## 1
Amino acid sequence: MSTTIPLQTLVAAPAGSPHPQVPPPVEATPALQASEPVYVTRPSLPPLEEFLPYLEGIWEQGILTNNGPYHRQFEARLAEYLGVQHLSLFANGTLALLTALQALRITGEVITTPYSFVATSHALLWNRLEPVFVDVDPVTLNLDPARIEAAITPRTTAILPVHCYGRPCAVEEIQAIADRHGLKVLYDAAHAFGVEDAGGSILRHGDLSILSLHATKVFNTFEGGAIISPDAETKRHIDNLKNFGFVNETTVVAPGINGKMSEVNAAFGLLQLQHIDRALEARKRLAARYVDGLAGVRGITLVQSDAARRNHAYFPILVGADFPLSREALYAMLKSAGIHARRYFYPLISSFPMYRHLASADPAHLPCATAASESVICLPLYPDLPTPVQDRIIELVATAAMCGAGDARDAA
Ligand code: T4K
């Protein structure tokens, strides 16, 4: 491991600092120069001057939204980049989820995971659907296919799995179950931008997949989302739904919504496509560095994707019972050192007030999701994360692993 820099150097030293011996940061990055906290993620942003011509184009044309030229271009280029054929842009991932459920006319109960961002289940409630929570696999942290069939009732119409952290779900097994029971499958692929399995894009599975292009995601358009459809007809229907149900100036065929992405977001997306491969490379390098630094740390389990092409969207670790600090103590220790890691996904969705009354929300039925939720920490990972800062994060975790143990856990 390379030389690390004491965290004090992340904070601007006052005049007459008692640390004159501290060497200057190796890389003069903003995060090291200022007393800025280190967040779980920071958005990838291209140089501002590269975006100005796109804005000028919008100003010249006066088309701000409603399937404008940038929207059409970005939709086509994004589909091409992702290796899918039928993609509809949305204003955000949540609107994409809401619309996907409408498009497939889902009713009754939907089997889903409690181990996700709350938007996954909220999209069901907004469609007056009942989430039925099924436990996750303890290794993949995705919906456990072995537990799905037991949760199917005559009211079940769909399965809504999440490729959590961008790790592919057990897509073949889930499809086989859906086929046996006549269920639709909608993938919440909010984390899975660019992820591929042996056959290509992970987004080709199921009846529909949705993406998030939010600021915190691997690929962002500030806010944004997309639905990936299996055929042109489904895409057309979704395009109508996201535009109030209009098919032409005077005809409305469905109670649609306004889910459209604006020209500014679409133009930004076009520019972002020029930078995404470099961003993914940086994530890969940083993730490998975490693996090198943390793989041997006692009590820490790394949650790794087995995808053919990964996106390294997050770097989750599980803090085990044999780690000297509790998860909460490690989280607090990192925070006090200026490292704002996040406990994605804690609390479980099923424990929020609007869900906890459901029979399927009983933690006794969700032991693996509960255990993961109570032990996970997502460490900062984003393309511009300075190497010395990452080394310091690794050092903090590794040092905690060696500290005088049981007492620290008890005290936390
Ligand atoms: N399904 C799944 C599985 C999802 O994870 C999500 C979203 C959705 C559906 C819905 O998609 P969208 O409708 O959002 O497109 C964040 C995001 O807001 C959310 O998009 C994401 N999942 C979720 C996992 O994470 P928060 O509440 O943790 O965000 P926030 O504001 O605390 O941001 C985290 C850190 O990122 C901040 O501490 C600093 C940094 N940050 C954030 C923003 C927004 C920046 O540096 N710049 C920024 O602009 O939910």
## 2
Amino acid sequence: AQAPRVLGIESTCDETAAAIVQGRELISNVVASSMQEHARYGGVIPEIASRAHAQSFIPVVEQALHDAHLTLDDIDAIAVSAGPGLAGCLAVGVSGAKALALAANKPLYGINHVIGHIAVTQLQFGAFPERTMALIVSGGHTSLLEVHDIARDVRVKGTTLDDAAGECFDKVARLLGFPYPGGPYIDRHARLGDPHALRVPQGLTQGRAGAEHPFDFSFSGVKTAVARWVEQETAQGHEIPVDDVCASLAYSVADVLAKKAITACVDADVYTLVVGGGFSANSQLRAALQQYGERHGIEVRLPELKLCTDNGAMVAQLGVNLIEAGCAPSPLDCPIDSAMPL
Ligand code: KG4
Ligand code: ZN
């Protein structure tokens, strides 16, 4: 039999995306973003994002089919992110996917967006070894996950107790006057600064909290420490060494993420770490992961950027995995879940 061919639909946040995956092959991939519309508000406005999804949904799906030279009839199943994400945004994507499934008489698979970020790495690196660790880092998530079976058994090893890493970068960036999302600006300036210029705490690395949460993260203290330092310097009339601030922040966050991810692999005797989420574009994190990975003999699978940020391919690929594993489709009255657990 031919490998399943799945249309994947993504609308959890500010990207309306559709893609077609057959087996482990990406056939088409279309992404429309409402990011520009949120920039002047300094963050994603759910109401604006939902409206943008309602507008872009059909054009994006049509483009994905058109690029693949296919019609809905040629698709085996439709997969859609049913959570976690912004409720209004999820409602648009899931309702649209249900309508398509009903009209074309195709099975529907509501999938977990975070597991999609892991699944998508198969497009570039192939199937997972029997045991894999995953580090998913973006503006919305920071999680360390154990992948036993991508379709049925992914377990949380650790997660952030407060802010996501990208969120922390975006908040500090705002303080420094960079436009939203500020993560990439911090990255660029960090390359020019001294990573040890100021002491930025890493959060949950040592002490009692660290022992209780060996694989959890905390970034709100990191943000507060940088904010307080900048405030004090400004009050004393000192000029803020922006490059040094960025470098110190980036070093602190990248180092704790990479160290914990690689330690989790070593502890569990796992030799493959897959990475995903928009923050995995961060050059300091990529360098730290490569360095710690090499030192400990762990293969670090860092996908190209278009597969790291939110897209439809991650949804379609996980849909393929669910079909291959013999999982039942979702009913057409399946709910959305903005806080969907794994
Ligand atoms: O996955 P994504 O596109 O959207 C979600 O948050 O789900 O990730 C966006 C996040 C933002 O916080 C952005 O600032 C951060 O990833 N980001 C970066 C870099 N590129 C994107 N942060 C640091 N360095 C980068 N190069
Ligand atoms: Zn995401």
